[in-house]
Amino acid sequence: MFSRKKVFLLLISVIAIAALLMVGAASALAADTIVWKSSGHGPATDPSQIFHDKLCEAITKASGGRLVIKAFVGGSVVPATKEIDAVDEGVLQMCYTCPMYNLDKWKAAGLISSRPG
């Protein structure tokens, strides 16, 4: 089960990594290539999956190729909606998912997610 602190730290970590990449700090690091796997939660034609794929490409480009993020469609690595579990278990290093899929782990997820009705 995820604690609020763990989810908060994960969110802060992702923001910090993105900020470092945007200012070009990655170019000053060693030349070794880092490869991450990232999964969205929808099919290839879903707008959120298309955004996920473009984000992975943009991060790879912004890092100068030092951090390569391989994008996978929902359900191709782990069952769709279980991406956060896969990050926690080390199967994925990044994911793009809906917070509402994780209400069992984080009761406040509905506050930062869109819900019908």
Write up what this structure looks like:
With 117 residues, the protein is of the alpha/beta class. It has a single domain, classed as Bacterial extracellular solute-binding protein, family 7 (D-Maltodextrin-Binding Protein, domain 2, 3-Layer(aba) Sandwich). Helices cover 36% and strands 12% of the residues. It has 3 helices and 3 strands. The protein has a 3-stranded parallel β-sheet. Helix 2 (47-62) links the parallel strand 1 (34-39) and strand 2 (67-72). It is globular, with a radius of gyration of 15 Å. The two termini are 28 Å apart. The model has no long low-confidence stretch (mean pLDDT 83). This is C4-dicarboxylate ABC transporter substrate-binding protein. Belongs to the bacterial solute-binding protein 7 family. Keywords: Signal, Transport.
Q: How many helix segments?
A: 3
CATH superfamily: Bacterial extracellular solute-binding protein, family 7
How is the main sheet built?
Answer: 3 strands, parallel
CATH class: Alpha Beta
Q: Termini separation (Å)?
A: 28 Å
Q: In CATH terms, what is the architecture?
A: 3-Layer(aba) Sandwich
| Helix content range | 25-40%
Could you say which overall geometry the principal axes of the C-alpha atoms support? Answer: globular
Tally the structural domains.
1
What descriptors fit this protein?
DctP_fam; single chain; 36% helix; TRAP_DctP_sf; transport; signal; 12% strand; alpha/beta; D-Maltodextrin-Binding Protein, domain 2
Fold topology:
Blueprint: H1 4-22, E1 34-39, H2 47-62, E2 67-72, H3 83-89, E3 94-95
Parallel strand pairs: 1-2, 1-3
